[in-house]
Design a protein that fits this description.
This protein has 92 residues and is an all-alpha fold. It contains four helices and no strands.
């Protein structure tokens, strides 16, 4: 497991709060762990969670994640990918 950047930690905390994932420690998050699916080290999220994540990110960072955008689809693979994508959208 690699360490989290400040942005990745902030995003992990946002996801945990938005999805009410009690018992999950943002600081212990593997930034490359899969967000979706039944992976042993993953988050195990589903499509409803993706909608909640997109809304939380829009409210927090003021960027819109478009589901039809291939870059957005790839970004939702992990906290690291999502953090990088959000940062790129914020730069603009």
């Amino acid at each position: 497991m690699s360490s989290l950047s400040t942005t990745e930690l902030e995003l992990a905390e946002l996801l945990i709060g938005a999805l009410n994932l009690e018992g999950r420690d943002a600081a212990a998050t593997d930034p490359e762990a899969p967000l979706f699916g039944d992976h042993e080290r993953g988050w195990g999220l589903d499509s409803i969670d993706a909608l909640e994540i997109a809304l939380a990110i829009q409210q927090r960072y003021g960027v819109e994640l478009r589901s039809e955008d291939e870059a957005t689809k790839r970004a939702f693979a992990s906290v690291r990918g999502l953090a990088a994508h959000v940062a790129s959208l914020r730069k603009g």
